[in-house]
Amino acid sequence: MHAWPASEVPALPGSGRDLRIHDTATGGRVTLVPGPVARIYVCGITPYDATHMGHAATYNAFDLVQRVWLDTKRQVHYVQNVTDIDDPLLERAVRDGEDWTALAERETALFREDMTALRMLPPRHYVGAVESIPKIVPLVERLRDAGAAYELEGDIYFSVAADPAFGSVSGLDAEAMRLLSAERGGDPERPGKKNPLDPMLWMAARPGEPSWDGASLGPGRPGWHIECVAIALDHLGMGFDLQGGGSDLVFPHHEMGASHAQALTGEHPYAQAYVHAGMVALDGQKMSKSRGNLVFVSALRREGVDPAAIRLSLLSHHYRADWEWTDAVLTEAVDRLARWRAAVSRPDGPSADALVEEVREALADDLDAPRALAAIDAWAAAQSAEGGTDEGAPGLVSRTADALLGVAL
Q1: Residue 169 contacts residue 274 (beta carbons within 8 Å)
Q2: Widest CA span in the chain
Q3: Residue 42 phi, psi (nearest 5)
Q4: Per-residue b/e over 333-359, b at no fewer than 16 CB within 10 Å?
């Protein structure tokens, strides 16, 4: 599976700072100091609907991570998956009378278009669940043969008891886990499971549903969590620098993924830091495909909204915050974009050397994008009120907004 084209990232004078970021597993800030190649895995879409603002906010957060690392002169090895086989995809295809593969391909293509328009840097590896099945099957067999998984009516379940560190990502108690499992795709009430929290690794073939050769597992399809583990271990290995996604993935997805990998390898941790973006609401409720309360990136683009303004609307909120999409949020972003573009269009202006360092420091401090925006706002206001004599300043501000914030002026 191919990703989307990369926009050029301008080089800035000097070098950026190491990223200090909130780690869900420890509940505090950690300073990430990767080697020459920083490794990041971000969970991708289940392609049964277009990219909504909640998706965009999540991928914007981890795009900032990439940009901070690139500014430190590191390379970035970024991996993202596409869950192109799962119950919600099949259910939507049945509802709409459409072939599930055609639905997945269309929505994945639209996602690529949205990411390109928003200037999100693409992953080095963009990998689908279906194409990963040959790598998933041996992992499930290894877990089963090691006693970390068991069969129940043809399905294969992971035993959470096989990982002594289970629970260390989310820090939740068993009852909270059970409630979230039922809400987020698990089956804690199924009779016969060793532990209600045990997640499915391999679903035996169901009548009328697609299935694949599972070797000794029998025909079927993979569970949700093992998909990401197979892709991450294949391309990044254990102990990669950052596992990312929306806050709704903390449990069960990231908790279970870590346990799968740790049981497979006997190593800990799966990732050095677990980082999660907040949820975006509309009309008082979290945007979700199941509710249908969505604002689509593609719809805004069709209405003529500049993608840079969409991106600024995302950047105006801290990545970990839950916030609500309103017309006022977009209006403010459109106005900010106009002010910035007017400011950098002049032939000279106030010195911007300090501004570059302010933006760097803001982003290195737990991706504080609103503080970075405020710094550029202040420069633009000074440009409007007083001007300046530094001929290189407008260009430096423009390159800073592009390189560190992904906003093309």
Answers
A1: yes
A2: 76
A3: -125, 130
A4: bbebbebbbebbeeeebbebeebbebb
CB 230 within 8 A of CB 259: no
Q: Read off the amino acid at residue 172.
A: L
Residues 6+ apart with CB under 8 A from 240: 39, 40, 41, 232, 270, 271, 272
What's phi and psi for 157, nearest 5 deg?
A: -115, 145
pLDDT in tens, 353-368: 999 999 999 999 999 9
Neighbour-count burial for 250-274, b at 16+ CB within 10 Å, e otherwise:
bbbbbbbbbbbbbbbeeeebbbbbb
CA angle 18, 41, 86 (to 5 degrees): 155
Q: Residue written as tokens 């990219």? A: 51
pLDDT digits (tens, 9 = 90+) for 156-203: 999 999 999 999 999 999 999 999 999 999 999 999 999 999 999 999
How big is the chain, counted in residues?
Answer: 409
Separation CA 127–CA 355 (nearest Å): 38
Query: For the CA atoms of 379, 383, 386, 387, what is the dihedral angle to 10 degrees?
Result: 120
Question: Residue 202 burial by CB count (10 A; 0-12/13-18/19+): exposed, middle or buried?
Answer: buried
Q: End-to-end CA distance of the chain: give it in Å, rounded.
A: 31
